[in-house]
Design goal:
The chain is mainly alpha-helical. The chain has 6 helices and no strands. The protein has a domain of about 140 residues.
Length: about 220
Amino acid sequence: MFGYDWPRLHAALNDLPAALLITAVLFDLIAAATRRAGFRQASLYTLVVGGIGAVAAVLSGLQAEETIDHGDAVHQVMETHELLAFVTLGIFGVLAVWRLFRETRMGAAERSLSLALALGGAGVLIAVAVYGGRLVFDHAAGIPTGVLQAEAEQRTAGHQHAPGEEHGRAAPAPGPTDSAGVHVDPPGTPPHTHEEPAPASPGGHSHEPGTPAHGH
């Protein structure tokens, strides 16, 4: 749908819930430092929305696992990534339900315990992201084998530049010439002569064209 297969959909869905869950933990830390209830409310709302997004990310990841080409090395990393994702979802899911029912009645000890659980969940979430990055950047997971082979062949061949071409700058266009290949001036160019530089003297010194004769 809209050009998205399961791996692309998973990549599109997993960033936002991760950002929301980390933000929820940050709001909790600010609330603990400032004792302001507004930050606790913001943390709760962000946590619930991030938890819902995490469910979508995990489900799309399970579908992506079944469709991508991969070998044993990718499979091992993928299994660890999947396990950590389930742990993360479990921690933040329990935390969201807990706070929905207990938010207004939490004492200091209970709130400290919920904050510790949130910090642990954030640590596991970071590990999920690390293993997800390894899948993409170390093993090219999600890239079809044919596309990967074609890219490898192109990289092996190397990128060739046209003579005089630089990165970000095209080669200068050649000046106009006549049918014999002799340089001609564009219309409207003031009269002038094309002179070759004078040959260098035996001592290595040369004069510009039109310099009066003189001795050395």
